[in-house]
Amino acid sequence: MRNKNIKNISNIIKCNKWGFENGEKAKYSGCLNRWVIKENVFYPNLGQEWVFLYYQPVRYNVEYLENSDTLTERQQILACIKAGYWEIPISAYGQRLTAWCISPIFCINCKNFIITEARLYMLSGDDDIIAIKFPIEDIEKVKSFISKNYKMLYYETLETFVEENDYIFI
Q1: DSSP string spanning 49-66?
Q2: Longest Cα pair distance anywhere in the chain, in angstroms?
Q3: By three-state DSSP, how is residue 167 classified?
Q4: What's the Cα-to-Cα distance from 40 to each of 51, 64, 95, 117, 151, rounded to whole Å?
Q5: Whole-angstrom Cα distance, residue 118 to residue 39?
Q6: Nearest 5°: CA angle at 23, between 32 and 53?
Q7: What Cα–Cα distance (Å) separates residue 144 from each residue in 35, 101, 155?
Q8: b/e per residue, 70-89, with b = 16+ CB within 10 A?
Q9: SS percent in the chain: helix, strand, coil, step 5
C-alpha cells in the first residue's frame, strides 16, 4: 500500500536537452528537494521508481577574484559571472532544474520478475547523464546520500560514494 502523503508524479518529467517545458516553477514547486514516487512506465504493477527534483545552485568561485574582500556579495557574484568563475555541480546539459531517479532493474530472462538491483541516474530529456547500478536493498542509503549532498554534488563526491560501496557506473 502506497503512502497517500507522497505525491505521485507519473507525468512530471517532460523535458528536452535544453530545458523543462511549460513553466517549471509552477509545475514543480510542490515536488522539489524530496523523493517522490513515480510509477514504473514499463511495468506499472511491478515496482516503483523514485524521483528527486531540485534546482542546482550555482557556485561562485570568489577565491579566484582579486580584492574580493572589498566587494559586496552582489559585486562578487557579478565579477564571478563576468570572469567565468562559476560552475554548476553535476549538470544535466546546464539545466538548473535537475532530476535524479532510482528505478529497479528487472531480470528479463527469468520466468518470474526478480528484482535484485536498482540504478540511480540523472535525467535530462531522454538521456541518462550518469547511471549507477547498486543492490536493491541499498535504496534508502542511496536516497539518503543524494538528499544530503544534492546542493553541491560533484562527480568526485559521487565517484567516492560509488567506490566506497562497491557500486558500478553503467
Answers
A1: EEEEEEEPPPEE-GGGST
A2: 68
A3: coil
A4: 11, 45, 24, 15, 27
A5: 15
A6: 20
A7: 10, 13, 17
A8: ebeeeebbebbeeeebeeeb
A9: 30, 30, 40
| 41 grid coordinates | 512506465
61-87 per-position pLDDT tens digit: 999 998 888 999 999 999 999 999 988
**What is the rounded distance in angstroms from the CA atom of residue 9 to the CA atom of residue 7?**
6
**Distance (Å, whole) CA 73 – CA 85:** 14
Instruction: Name the pLDDT band for 6 (thresholds 50, 70, 90).
Output: very low
